[in-house]
Design a protein that fits this description.
Glutaredoxin, four-stranded mixed β-sheet, alpha+beta, 85 residues, 4 strands, globular
Length: 85
């Protein structure tokens, strides 16, 4: 299973929804990077993604975007393929 990284905050409902969706898909190891109190992590996320909103989700090295993007991949049948890489 591909490594999954989520940049997010503890209070973000979309971050929690993304994590639940991934867990339903069988992902047990999610690297969570909390950018709420860590300015260096926030800056790294913004530089890596070009975005300043959370969550920002990576499957392996592929930036898939936020929760809406992750959900769209799931609905389109592409998420399982990405997770199996």
């Amino acid at each position: 299973m591909a490594k999954v990284t989520i940049y997010g905050t503890q209070w973000c409902g979309y971050c929690q929804s993304a994590e639940r969706l991934l867990q339903r898909k069988g992902v047990t190891d999610i690297a969570k990077i909390d950018v709420d109190q860590d300015q260096a992590a926030f800056k790294a996320m913004a530089e890596r993604t070009g975005r300043r909103m959370v969550p920002q989700i990576f499957i392996g090295d592929l930036h898939v975007g936020g929760f809406d993007d992750l959900s769209a991949l799931d609905r389109g049948g592409q998420l399982d393929k990405l997770l199996q890489q």
